[in-house]
UniProtKB/TrEMBL annotation:
Enzyme Commission numbers on file: 2.4.1.1
Protein name: Alpha-1,4 glucan phosphorylase
Keyword Transferase: yes
Superkingdom of the organism of origin: Bacteria
Organism of provenance: Microbacterium aurantiacum
Amino acid sequence: PVPTPPSTVDGFVKQFLENLNLERGVTLSTASPNDRYIALATTVRDFLVARWLEDIRRQKDAQAKGVCYLSAEYLLGRQLDNNLLATRLTDIATEALASCGIDIDDMRALEVEPGLGNGGLGRLAACFIDSLATMSVPSIGYGIRYEYGIFRQTFVGGQQVEQPDAWLTLGSPWEFAHPESAQTISFGGHTETYDDGGVTRSRWVPGWNVQAVPYNYMVPGYHNGRVNTLRLWRAVATDAFDLRIFNSGDYEEAVRAQTYAENISKVLYPEDSTPQGKELRLQQQYFFVAASIRDFLDHMLTPGFDLSKLPDRVIFQLNDTHPVIAVPEFMRVLVDEEHMEWDAAWEITQQCFAYTCHTLLPEALEVWSVELLGRLLPRHLEIIYRINDAFLEEVRERFGDDEMRIRNMSIIAEFPERSVRMAYLATVAGAKVNGVAELHSQLLREKVLPDFDEFYPGKFTNVTNGVTPRRFLRLANPGLAGLITDALGAGWTVDLERLRGLESFAEDPEFRARFAEVKAANKRVLSDVLRARDGFEVSDGHMLDVMVKRLHEYKRQMLKVLHIVTSYERIVSGRVKAEDVQGRAFIFGAKAAPGYAMAKRIIHLINAVGEVVNNDPRVEGRLQVLFPPNYNVTLAERVIPAADLSEQISLAGKEASGTGNMKFALNGALTIGTDDGANVEIRELVGDDNFFLFGMTEPEVEELWTRGYKPAEFYQQDEDLRRAIDLIASGAFSNGDRTVFEPIVSNLLYDDRFMVLADYASYIRAQDRVDAAYADQDAWTKAAILNIARCGFFSSDRSIRDYIDRIWHTPPML
Ligand code: 26Q
């Protein structure tokens, strides 16, 4: 048994000092800040180890059904504070460090967050493993330990410049590497058939290998003593002998081959839509799922386990299509390695996988060219073909020889090149397919995969996303958390529906005053952070109007820009008096995929508009534009609690869910939003009076498209819009240079795929309503409190409960 470290201040100090000596080789007086941080993190980590080892054993012994969450991304955010909170060590550690003359806040600030994800999907995975641990669900998260996470964003002349995110360079105290448990993962080569005692079998003769080394992270449940595992894989070259199979044998070539192999886990792809079909990306996907499946089979099952019983023991949840190559890999293991009959193996596979879709954009649906797949994973391609043949045979039986339908449903697309449709493969293989918000799931069934919905009644379901209240309320907003606990007791952190109890407090003037004070304090904290981080001076007393999310045309940051330019132009043209305008600070946070030219131009424009607006005395004290670079989880935890207004303004039918929208509402920001994604559910819950709705509905969008959308007509007919666009086109934000933002202007006027101009008028009217509402501070506060009270539904604990009830059927361990 591993001793549980002492949970007293003295014990903590002793352990901390010992870690300084033994882990860092320094004394307290010679320790660098990083030494102190590492020693502190190690102290907290060691405290978790005993429980962790116990939980690993318990999960194995119980032989209960568990979840393997397969995700190419985990956007974890900083670990220290979360782990202190989960283990109730915050006060002890604070005091212990103080007694050593160290301010624990300085330690918190030193941690580099592991940014192993792009945005919503990766952060969702992180919230889910937090909830799984907190709810004692037998589970493990599998992913990739990227050496470089999402790039660090800087601005040079207002334009995005990407820097590598070398998050590991100062040490990584939260992980345990297990090189001795490495597995060999193969690629390339060819397939062959052979005679196995009268049975003809297929097998894969791979061309080259890499080692997959597991790195384990502890995922503590909140105050429940549970610790789950997140296992991330790192690619390491195999020894020289194996490498020689792959290369000609000379030294330089061998080193090159090593680099090639280790590239697999080198860097996170910073695209979060329009996948490029890059070979390395497919290598990453296969690398991590092959290692994860092998890991599960080797370590979670007892020797001699009857594989036909696998559906009673495991469900592999596919986080989007990124891990879908797991399906043919699982079949390959069962059929080629375990010598199971194809039909029996397929039966099992169809019960062991479930697929979550996170998009509606057709260009975001992953496809792999048959050429590439066949070259990298020849046996898997054969298996996919066989799955498809059997599937299409079933389709023919049901619908007859409807060739159009067959072509539409085929896992193999023929145009523009022969390729594998990963979403179709996932749908055919999965026991369930879910969307991530009610509207999204409905559109998924009706628009994206209607033939499949008809073919597989009951397969499609919804699980609305959620966020962890531990990180995004308790930790990020301690002031509000304290207020809630004073009002309702502490149970809300694991039972977020209890926030309903705040409804009556919305009527209590004293509670409202305290809430307003918390919001003001959070704004001061944010101001301090932005001053220290970026040298910004946030104006006092302004409404904080926030849009933070990846930069995408469908999310419509441009609509926000047009609103800002309109607000500015109305004042400088003298049409509106500055005094009559509500003071606002517009805050943006957004990274653009490095290859996404239009997104980068929009970032440039936001910075350019900010430069002009922030330096024009005519709007001073009224309008301010702040765009801190490198928006990440750490900054989110400061921005969201300070926000008054949450911008969720995607074109209806494009945003699968959104999860930022939930975080804002739970922190008492009001939403201005379209009828899209989870906004729909937020508005239903908080009520129309506490939500600023605008824009076309999804059917209206559809209708305008079919009628023929001409954005220039909206430009012609709306004076405010014309003035705003003309101002941008005139070079007012580019030192008179009309060429810089010309592509944005002509895109809006002549293309505008996401109907920014069509929703402009409605958006501006809604913003005018926001201004009027904000003028009555007390009424605004009441609405903010009601948002909090009514959004308990958006806890990721509830999402996990829905996954358990509708998909996984994995009861919590008691
Ligand atoms: C795929 C192939 C190649 C390279 C990159 C990718 C890739 C990577 C990340 C494709 C998509 C993503 C991420 C998508 C994402 O974050 N989607 C968001 O998921 C959230 C959680 O469900 C939703 O709330 C958002 O609406 C959705 O946009």
